[in-house]
# Entry
Amino acid sequence: MAITKTSFMRGMQCPKMIWLDRHRPSLKVIPPEVQERLDAGNEFGDKAMAMFGPYEEMTIYLPGTTIPDKKAMVAKTREHLDKGTAVICEAAFMSYNNYCAIDILRKTDNGYDIYEVKNTPEVHEQYIEDAAFQYYITDHCHLKVGKIFIVIRGEDENEPFVPVDVTEEVKKKYNWIDNNIWRLNRIQKQSEEVEIEPGEQCNRPYECWYYGYCHHTETEEKNDQPEQLTLI
Ligand code: SF4
# Structure
């Protein structure tokens, strides 16, 4: 596998992260509170799948695992696109082995709209970048995309899912994705470890799971940090 949405976002935060993900993943330490946020985000995403009513989910796991079978998911997505399924969740696309799964695709008169679900009350810049990666891959797969939305958390249970139209901002980032996706591909595959001094990138926009390795301490407290976002 080349670059996924998650590895693109991680690589743009710090290229060393995706090198470690590929070559030394056992060094990763995911703090329990981060895992809780990841789980909450997944739960929110699962509920959002039904926000437009009946849907078809594309998730397929490799036998006996909870690892997504990306090729099977891509094939299943293609089948549903061909038959015009109205709402497709976890719709998978692959271009030159670069991969993304889109939370929700909703059919329109002219193609499909993209909905990326985030369990937060507001849209952050990195969510635009995240959606831009998905748009880039779907465009390379010749999907006709209309609008692109980030779905954020509503204020109460009467309005739990709030789509925010980010189409214009996302499309402006197309060339930025193109300029970086192949650079990150090369970095990920190189044999020598990426040399980068720890710095602000270790906490922004997401806290890095290799913090202990790069700072030579697994236990050091990270004081005075603002509330962290979680990449999902
Ligand atoms: S701890 Fe900092 S330097 Fe090390 S991989 Fe993470 S972001 Fe990069």
The helical segments are 5-13, 15-23, 32-48, 70-83, 125-140, 167-171, 174-189, 211-214. The chain has eight helices and six strands. The longest strand covers residues 98-107. The pocket of iron/sulfur cluster is lined by residues 14, 16-17, 20, 196, 198, 201-202, 208, 210-211, 214 (CB under 6 Å).
